[in-house]
Write a structure and sequence with these properties.
Blueprint: H1 2-10, H2 18-29, H3 33-44, H4 51-64, H5 68-78, H6 86-98, H7 102-115, H8 121-133, H9 139-152, H10 157-169, H11 173-186, H12 191-203, H13 207-220, H14 225-237, H15 241-254, H16 259-271, H17 275-288, H18 293-305, H19 309-321, H20 329-341, H21 345-358, H22 363-375, H23 379-393, H24 398-410, H25 414-427, H26 432-445, H27 456-466, H28 474-490, H29 494-507, H30 512-520
Length: 522
């Protein structure tokens, strides 16, 4: 009679659909939460099913998949205070843990154990698992309940595996490995046990043993997606990069309907900087989910890396068009950069403003924002942010220095501009722009009524350094020849002046300024 009572208690929440719920539990154990949810949702429509039990396991599937809010809804549905089904009290206890009410949780767990007379291994297991999956984990309580579960059901592979998880998460890798090996010995076809053994070896950087265990898991169950994902990760950690892609691709194929699996594959491609394939796979994924913010975020970032700014900005626009989109700091950063690089300076400034509110000392952001302000012709703001970058980051890049000089130039702060153009020449002595812009700036600083030609040395340096390539430096050479020729004309050296104006005509026989100056010198 006692044996019959125990059997009823053990199966109280499986109802007539025990195999179906067990299948769902197996998918949860395999970390295939998408399929677990599918099975359980189907079971919800079965009139003969135990709705409380189904809701409980749906809560587990959502919680393990990182969706605590949905899990709470299902745990609430699983509890009925008038019922003597212990699983409802476990659900209520898990709900209490999610809400930070540990004492309430313990009372519910104690009630579940009392109803089952402390003889139901599954209830002990679920209590232990509750402490292990709570926001604030209690490893001592988890181990206590799980050890009791394996005592009551010493042949349960899954109970030993979860007990191993509890030891592993409490930094007792040796005990964890022992439990996983016990699970493997109990069921030599347990691919999950082999995956757990592989994880211990991976964490210990014993990659060959981890690979062996995962290859064995695939031999046991060639359709277990998780094994391919784990093997791909170990290949990556052991720098066997040529083998990684195939594993993640297989993982995605086995989870073709699972958006989370698809994104993991795409995210992996992005993490190894395979931007071409990231764009290809993301574009495919967006065909079925055109408003998936995760895909659009990665698509924008990949195009930015490949300097496909228009395509990247198109992805940004689609991202921000999603109703109530949940943006991250990186979204504002990439949006700002792409807007700036495609000439949309108005929106670039808006994005940069928000991005800097999130990270006010980011050196790259400060420089990019200052550049966007410069392109928007907000020269005073641009120089202010370039100076802020210099104060916060200790230095400016050569391009930053050049842009500061030009911002001061256009703002008619010529003395400040000269300082930065001089720095730019020192930093990049082989770049023509520094000499040309310093000459241009000093020419405007000169007395227009009685010019001293203070820019002369810089235009002369430009000619000395870059006249050998007239095709590349045509505009700068023409400007330099005109200035130098004007200097000699002013000093009554007509022959030398003409020689420079004629050099201008060699560059462009129809140059109006050169022809006009030669007329005046006749």
């Amino acid at each position: 009679m006692k044996k019959i009572i125990f059997t009823v208690l053990a199966g109280a929440f499986f109802s007539v659909n025990a195999q179906t719920i067990q299948d769902a539990q197996r998918e949860i154990d395999n970390e295939n939460y998408f399929r677990a949810k599918q099975l359980l949702r189907k079971l919800q429509t079965d009139p003969a099913s135990d709705k409380n039990a189904v809701s409980f396991y749906l809560g587990n599937a959502y919680l393990n998949d990182g969706d605590a809010d949905s899990a709470k809804l299902f745990y609430t549905a699983a509890f009925n205070s008038e019922s003597k089904n212990p699983i409802g009290y476990v659900a209520n206890g898990k709900l209490a843990l999610l809400n930070g009410k540990k004492e309430d949780a313990k009372q519910n767990f104690d009630r579940a154990l009392q109803i089952s007379k402390f003889k139901n291994a599954e209830i002990q297991y679920q209590v232990g698992d509750a402490y292990l999956t709570a926001p604030t984990k209690d490893f001592a309580e988890a181990v206590k309940a799980l050890e009791e579960a394996v005592r009551l059901s010493p042949k349960s592979t899954n109970y030993f595996i979860t007990l191993g998880d509890a030891y592993l998460q409490s930094n007792e890798a040796g005990k964890a490995l022992s439990k996983y090996e016990t699970a493997r010995d109990l069921d030599t076809k347990s691919a999950v046990a082999l995956i757990k053994i592989a994880r211990v070896n991976r964490n210990g950087r014993i990659y060959p043993d981890a690979i062996t265990a995962l290859e064995s898991a695939i031999k046991v169950d060639a359709n277990l997606a998780l094994a391919y994902k784990e093997l791909g990760e170990v290949y990556y950690l052991s720098k066997q990069y040529d083998k990684v892609g195939a594993m993640f691709k297989k993982y995605m194929e086995l989870n073709s309907d699972d958006a989370a699996a698809k994104f993991q594959y795409i995210n992996f491609l992005f993490s190894i900087k395979d931007y071409e394939n990231t764009i290809t796979e993301t574009t495919k994924a967006l065909q079925s989910e055109p408003n998936n913010a995760l895909y659009l975020r990665v698509l924008a970032a990949s195009n930015l890396e490949l300097k496909r700014y228009k395509d990247g900005y198109d992805a940004v626009k689609r991202f921000w068009a999603i109703p109530d989109v949940k943006a991250k700091a990186i979204d504002y950063v990439n949006s700002a950069k792409l807007a700036s690089l495609t000439g949309d300076t108005t929106n670039a400034i808006l994005y940069f403003t928000t991005a800097l509110q999130n990270d006010s000392t980011n050196c790259d952001l400060l420089g990019e924002y200052a550049k966007a302000l410069y392109l928007a012709k907000r020269y005073s703001d641009a120089t202010a942010y370039y100076n802020k970058k210099q104060e916060s980051c200790g230095s400016l890049s050569a391009l930053d220095i050049f842009n500061v000089g030009r911002a001061y130039y256009f703002n008619k702060e010529y003395a400040n501009a000269d300082t930065f153009f001089a720095q730019f020449i020192t930093r990049t002595p082989s770049t023509p722009d520094g000499y040309l812009w310093r000459g241009k700036n000093l020419a405007l600083m000169d007395d227009p009524t009685n010019p001293k030609f203070i820019a002369l040395p810089h235009y002369q340096q430009f000619v000395e350094k870059f006249a050998a390539d007239p095709a590349k430096n045509k505009r700068g050479l023409a400007e330099s020849y005109l200035y130098i020729g004007s200097y000699y004309a002013q000093n009554n050296d007509v022959a030398t002046a003409k020689s420079y104006f004629n050099k201008m005509l060699e560059l462009d026989p129809a140059d109006a300024e050169a022809l006009e100056m030669l007329k005046l010198l006749k």
